UniProtKB/TrEMBL annotation, chain A:
It holds the Pfam family Adaptin_N. It is a peripheral membrane protein. GO terms for biological process: intracellular protein transport; vesicle-mediated transport. This is AP complex subunit beta. It comes from Dicentrarchus labrax. GO terms for cellular component: endomembrane system; membrane coat. Residues 573-593 are annotated as: Disordered. Its main location: membrane. It comes from the Eukaryota. SUPFAM superfamilies: ARM repeat (SSF48371).
From TrEMBL, chain B:
PROSITE patterns: CLAT_ADAPTOR_M_1, CLAT_ADAPTOR_M_2, MHD. Belongs to the adaptor complexes medium subunit family. Keywords: Cytoplasmic vesicle, Golgi apparatus, Membrane, Protein transport, Transport. The gene is ap3m1. PANTHER family: AP COMPLEX SUBUNIT MU. Part of the AP-3 complex, an adaptor-related complex which is not clathrin-associated. The complex is associated with the Golgi region as well as more peripheral structures. It facilitates the budding of vesicles from the Golgi membrane and may be directly involved in trafficking to lysosomes. It is found in: Golgi apparatus; Cytoplasmic vesicle membrane. This is AP-3 complex subunit mu-1. InterPro entries: Adaptor_comp_med_subunit, AP2_Mu_C_sf, AP_mu_sigma_su, Clathrin_mu, Clathrin_mu_CS, Longin-like_dom_sf, MHD. Its main location: Golgi. Residues 176-415 form the MHD domain. It comes from Dicentrarchus labrax. GO terms for biological process: intracellular protein transport; vesicle-mediated transport.
Amino acid sequence: MPYLGGEDTVRELRRALSNPNVQSDQLRYRNTILKVIRAMSQGVDVSGLFSDMVKACATVDIVQKKLVYVFLCSYAALNPELSLLVINTLRKDCQDPNPMVRSLALRNMTNLRLPSLMEYVEQPLTAGLRDRAACVRRVAVLGWAKLHNLQPNSEIDAAVVNELYSLLRDPDPVVMVNCLRALEEILKEEGGIAINKPITHHLLNRLKESDVWGQCEVLRILQRYRPQSEDELFDILSLLDASLVSPHPQVMAATLSLFLSLCSGLPAVSLAALERVRGPLLAACGSVSRELRFTALCHIQVSLLLRSLPGLMGAHYKRFFCGYAEPAYIKQRKMQVLVELVNDDNVTMLLDELKGYCTDVNTDTAQAAISAIGRIGRSYSDRCLEILTGLLALKQEHITSAVVQTMRDLVWVCPQCSDTVCLALEGCEETLQDSQGRQALLWLLGVYGEQVSSAPYTLEVFIDGVRSEVSLGVKMELLTTTMRLFLCRPAETQDMLGRLLHYCIEEEPDMCVRDQALLYYRLLHCGIEETQKVLQGRRSDPSLGVLIGRPSEPISQWACSFNTLEPLRQGTVETDSTSRGSPEHVTFEPKPNTDLSDTLNCSQVEKVPSGETGRTPFLARIHTDTHKPLFLASLPFSYPFNKCLCFYMPI
Amino acid sequence: MIHSLFLINHSGDIFLEKHWKSVISRSVCDYFFEAREKAVDPENVPPVLQTPHHYLISIYRGKLFFLSVIQTEVAPLFVIEFLHRVADTIQDYFGECSEGIIKDNIVTVYELLEEMLDNGFPLATESNVLKEMIRPPTILRSVVNTLTGSSNVGDTLPTGQLSNVPWRRAGVKYTNNEAYFDVIEEIDAILDKSGTTVFAEIQGVIEACVRLTGMPDLTLSFMNPRLLDDVSFHPCVRFKRWESERVLSFIPPDGNFTLMNYHVSSQNLVAIPVYVKQSISFFETGPCGRLDITIGPKQTMGKTVENMMVTIHMPKAVLNANLTATQGTYTYDLTTKVLVWDIGKLNPQKLPNLRGSLSTQLAISGNPRYIMTLKLSQLMLVDCLKVSRLDMYGEKYKPFKGVKYLTKAGKFQVRT
């Protein structure tokens, strides 16, 4: 961050620091150093004052010491030679009678992070491990980890490692936990600290003494331990039982994670544990901190907690209703949870609730609500379609777009909805502005062209405006739709298809559109049967999951990602895609056990980049494989794009 | 674990950074700024962001972002709780957690951060322990310090760290021994158009102020402990006794602390103290609409409702409001489109009413949203948690004991 007047500030500060009058007055000296730190925190480069600050380090005033250390630790890496001067003062402080001074010196000695100073640091650190005061030992233990981080490739001193192992029995719980942390880092190459039976039981017995952070650490490390017998396992579980309902969400989550990993072979016990954490988990969902609420929701939703144990949260569905003041990311998460919780008893209530969210001020939230209704529509299509049709009457741009996309996705899964959808489509092309929504509308017009009476007229408007069209996706969709409509209503469409093909082949600057148009043109030469075979594939895929009656998934599938960043990470990706309104992401869930996977060649799918940009490589390939045009030609028509590989035509 | 911490203000300036492992360039925050820009509203920034080499976990408190940089896999709840603990500590030390106050006390904040984490691992986070190592500033002390040149840093090792009760220091002495408990309940509720409760729960907290000599051992018992669904205690509470006997038994920390948080979520127990009759309509024909709101008491058991305030978030298209209130005053903020009606005390004989016309642009999008805040003091509802007695063991003297009940509207929303 550029800071105006930075150089002047530094010059002034240097003058003040080297002024003997200031140096002799403790208070003024300290205030000057304070100004240096303040400038540093504002982003001014004060590294030029390093030598003056080194001098200021030799003082009895503990506040001044702390301030200087803050400075030195930030700039030591830039001045390795000058830092050598500080070491002497620090080593002297390590002998100080006051344990606070000793721990401070030791901590900052290791915080300098200069490999050249390692030899001076090792001796005080070794002494620190045997210090009387616990706070010095705490710092010394972690100091070894920092030292190791500086030179990760150096030999590990076996004596130090042994000493650290023995300090696991230190009376101070923080020292014990710090030992665990240090050993984890030092022995990273060997897979972390070795956990055997005596260590496990020692740690478990002392779990209560340490603070919440320490408990989390211990619980995490214990996940590596495998009990030798069932009796031992149950002993451990009963020791852990109290922390399972801990009031601190982080301890609760860590314990549950440990429970699940220990009981991987005993599903009944895991289920009982999940029942027990229901209360604390729900409490975390209603906590004051919105970040905490979000994390808890992610874990409930993405860890498939709901799917493994559908009854777990069912009665509490009202806890997932959104408040107005909540941030968008929580609302969207809650809606995804609500979709999972729907059943015959609460469906009316839930849909009413979701309907309210559809008019949210935040467009992302509104669109998420609409697509949530669409997903419930797979099971309760009539009620949902009623709501969706009602929303079209609002004539709001973003709502109409989301509704049309949702309808398209719904029709794909439930073809019986097509009549209602086709009726609803009339007139909504006027409100649609964004390319995603128009693409969806075009797809629907193409596939159900014979049911929408005004389809050719709508299409004509699109074709007349094709010159000013900017979206590649819309142009491609338009080509396919016109072709399809031509097949079922040739008389009305022939003329405009001709115009469109002519424009696309002769004038269109974009290669992809031109190639596609050429391809259709050649296809039409092959005769109408061939064209029909290629263009009229399946209209729907009923095999895609219906929301109710899905088999419950085993806990082991998500247990390993519980209490990690995994669920949250998936969350961000998902919300991104819904906000873009990309149809592929809304409907396509990569679930390994859906029926779809049988027909789907996964390795090929992975190579397919999704979205609009993904279309280019396909068409490039069409050119090279001209002797197999039919096979490849079928690709761009099929929908949704990610699933297109199921519709290969026989060669 | 936690690699670095950046404090970022409302307008997106980094005003404090602290690194515990190695120095990470400020440019890592660019990913955050990108997300911040995309979210429009600062509240909508997702708390966890993924960048090619780091995870950024942030919390938003008091118009500040606490952004931590993480390099390895961690438990997200752990980091989020820790960041909140940092914010709590700053609040506890300086009375508020804002950019100005942190900049004024930047040195103390650096000292605190240094003590709270070492090599990225939490070290000392208990407020009592920290306060003995780094004393919080008071006006008197800062005057004395300027005169004498002494500092805010304790010269001795905190006794609490060595005692068996880490949250209480040894050798506390008071001339007046007192223990006060505030039972504060917040009703979170969502009411629908017709006034029926869609969702309601009570979030309660017991704040304690204990000034007792020596090492007292307190036992607090309730008349209706079965009411509580989920509870969360200060670490001093013995959890085993709560599970078996439903009493709170604890050696209290010295001074102010939060003894426990709880939820009451069973719907039928939660009584809504007021009702709202509202009608709002926008005419299809012209650029105007009508608004009519009446508020009346319901199930208050003869207690008065105070500090009533109704906040209405109007749709963007509402240009101005021309209303009359029978009680209290109203203001309409033209930029944020928020109508605030400050009612004050609720009079059951003459119900407060707000009515009038709204001028709008032609296109109306979205419904208005109501948020009410209100306060009921000394309220004793059927569902309120009641303290039956407080006993003290371990010390000889007789302390003064007091308890106060307070009900507030937390997130109290009425739908249209």
